[in-house]
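Form P-L/3: holo structure prediction, ligand protoporphyrin IX containing FE.
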Amino acid sequence: MVIQETLRLYPPAVFVVREALEDIKFKHITIPKGMNVQVPISIVQQDPELWGPDAHLFNPERFAGGILGGAQAAYIPFGVGPRVCVGQHFAMMELKVILSLILLNFRFSISPSYVHSPGFALVVQPANGVWLLIERAN
Ligand code: HEM
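OUTPUT (holo model):
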């Protein structure tokens, strides 16, 4: 739940990109064949209409019912459809292993010098780094 909520608020990939293979009419918008459509993952995953008024808050409990208990199609950190990330299950396993090892061996907290500033580059990354205070757990 903590990993899912982190991937919701800070999805590493900025966009899911698709090319229109034919002219498409979507509500009042016409998308011509050949146009690239970029779906901004962060924005979809923080839309209060889809996620509720606390959309901007870190609340892992929103995934208590699993991913499908959340806002379903609006949760796309690994993309969606036939070209969804092929590494998603591997990535989730890596994240669980790494997080477990860190939590087993260290206690950590945010340093007073940390400034929260997610930056949009090729991937979403902390613009000022992540400053932590780390102690050995035993
Ligand atoms: C937290 C880690 C990761 C995130 C957030 C992530 C996210 C994404 C996203 C958003 C896409 C585009 C999906 C779409 O267009 O619908 C993608 C595609 C892809 N990812 Fe990942 N990914 C991660 C880790 C990995 C890992 C560990 C691997 C390989 C071991 C991997 C391999 C790929 C490949 C090959 C594609 C292209 C799939 C295709 O076009 O058919 N990813 N990923």
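COMMENT: The first strand starts at residue 15 and ends at 19.
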